[in-house]
Amino acid sequence: PFATDEDEVIKAIPCPLLPTALSIEGRLIALACMALADIGGALSRGHGAAAKVTATHLVTSPLRPGLTHDDVAGLEASVRHAHRAPIKRFTGEAGVFASLAAASQLLEAEPRGLVLVLAVDSFLSVDWLAHARAHPGSPWAPSRPHPSEAAAALVLAGPVFARELGLPPLARVVQSAVVPGAANDDNDEPVDPVAMTQVLTALGGFRVRYAFGQDAFDTLRVKEWYGAVARQAFRFREGHYEDCIERRIGQVGAAS
Question: How many Cα atoms are found within 13 Å in the side-chain-facing hemisphere of 49?
Answer without folding.
Answer: 4
